[in-house]
Write a structure and sequence with these properties.
CATH superfamily of chain A: Cytochrome c oxidase, subunit III, four-helix bundle
Helix content of chain B: over 70%
Order of helices and strands of chain B: HHH
Structural class of chain B: mainly alpha
Oligomer: heterodimer
Strand content of chain B: under 5%
Number of helices of chain A: 7
CATH architecture of chain A: Up-down Bundle
Number of domains of chain B: 2
Number of domains of chain A: 1
Mean pLDDT of chain B: 91
Distance between the termini of chain B: 56 Å
Mean pLDDT of chain A: 93
Number of strands of chain A: 0
CATH class of chain A: Mainly Alpha
Largest interface: A-B, 53 and 48 residues
C-alpha cells in the first residue's frame, strides 16, 4: 500500500455517463414542455421564434461544434504524449465557451432592451403562446448557459491537473469525463438551435 | 490502473466528423428557409438527431465502448421516449 491508488477507468466513465443520462432527462423535460406548447400554439411560436436572431444561434452553433472538436482531439493529443497541444486545445475550448457567453450576453441584452424578459410588462401584452415561447426560451437557454460555464470551469480544472502531472497520457479519465460533459453541452445546443432559432424562418 | 485497450481515435476522424456537423448545420438552416408545413419541424429534428448521433458515436466514442454503455444509453433514450409518448397521449386526447 505504498501510495498506490486503484483507479477503475471503466467505472469512472460509466458513472459520468449515468450522470449525463440524468441531464438528458432534465433537458428532455424542457423539450417536452416546448413540444406540448408548440402543438397548442403553432402560430404564436412561429411569430415569437422569428424575433430571435438566427445569426446568434448559428454563430454559437459553430463555436460549440468547434469547441467539441478541440476537446475530442485533446484526448488523442494527451495519449500521444503531446502535452502542449492538449493544453492549447483545452484553452481553445475555454475561449470558445467565453465567446459563446459573450454572444449570449449581447443576444439577451437586445431582447431585454425590447422589453422581452420573464415577467415584463411587454410580455404580458403579447399573445399567451408568445409569452410561453419566451419563458421556455429563457429557462432552456439559461440552464444551458449555466452548463457552458460549469463545463468551462471543469476543463480549466482539468488543465490545471494536466499541468501538475496528475492527469497524463496513461491516466486521463478526468479529461475523458470533463470532455463527455462538454460534448453534452454541445448536444443540447444541437437541439436548441433548430427548435428556437429556425422555427419557420 | 488504466484501460490498455481504450480506442485511440485519430485526429483525421474527428476533423471529418466536424466537417460533417458543419455541413448538416448549413443544411438545417437552408431547409428552414422553405415552408414545408408541419414537415419543417420533423426535418429539423431529423437533422439534429443525425448530428447528435455523430457527436455521441465519435466525439464521445460510444462506438468504441463496451455493450454495457450502449445498453445504458438505449435505456435512457427509451425512458425519454416513454416520457414524451405518455405526455402526448395525455395532451392530445384531452
Amino acid at each position: 500500500m505504498s501510495g498506490h491508488v486503484h483507479k477503475d477507468y471503466t467505472g469512472a466513465k460509466f458513472g459520468m455517463w449515468l450522470f449525463l443520462f440524468t441531464e438528458l432527462i432534465l433537458f428532455g423535460g424542457l423539450f417536452i414542455l416546448y413540444a406540448v406548447y408548440l402543438a397548442r400554439y403553432p402560430q404564436e411560436f412561429v411569430s415569437a421564434g422569428t424575433e430571435l436572431d438566427v445569426r446568434f444561434g448559428a454563430g454559437n452553433t459553430l463555436v460549440l461544434l468547434t469547441s467539441s472538436l478541440f476537446v475530442a482531439m485533446s484526448i488523442t493529443a494527451l495519449r500521444r504524449g503531446a502535452k502542449g497541444l492538449t493544453q492549447c486545445l483545452l484553452a481553445g475550448t475555454i475561449v470558445s465557451a467565453a465567446i459563446f457567453m459573450i454572444n449570449k450576453y449581447f443576444e439577451w441584452s437586445a431582447k431585454i432592451n425590447h422589453g422581452i424578459y420573464p415577467g415584463s410588462e411587454h410580455l404580458k401584452e403579447l399573445a399567451p403562446g408568445e409569452m410561453v415561447f419566451f419563458n421556455i426560451y429563457y429557462v432552456t437557454t439559461g440552464l444551458h448557459g449555466l452548463h457552458v460555464v460549469i463545463g468551462a470551469l471543469l476543463i480549466l480544472w482539468t488543465m490545471l491537473m494536466i499541468a501538475r502531472g496528475k492527469v497524463t497520457g496513461e491516466d486521463w479519465v478526468l479529461l475523458e469525463n470533463a470532455g463527455l460533459y462538454w460534448h453534452l453541452v454541445d448536444l443540447i445546443w444541437i437541439f436548441i438551435f433548430p427548435l428556437y432559432y429556425l422555427i419557420l424562418h | 490502473m488504466t484501460e490498455e485497450h481504450a480506442h485511440l481515435v485519430p485526429y483525421k476522424t474527428f476533423l471529418l466528423i466536424w466537417v460533417a456537423l458543419l455541413v448538416l448545420t448549413v443544411i438545417t438552416v437552408a431547409a428552414a428557409q422553405f415552408d414545408f408545413g408541419a414537415l419543417n419541424i420533423w426535418i429539423a429534428l431529423g437533422i439534429a438527431t443525425l448530428k447528435s448521433s455523430l457527436v455521441v458515436a465519435i466525439f464521445m466514442h460510444m462506438k468504441y465502448e463496451q455493450w454495457l454503455f450502449k445498453l445504458a444509453l438505449l435505456a435512457a433514450l427509451a425512458i425519454l421516449a416513454i416520457f414524451i409518448g405518455l405526455t402526448f397521449f395525455d395532451v392530445l386526447y384531452r
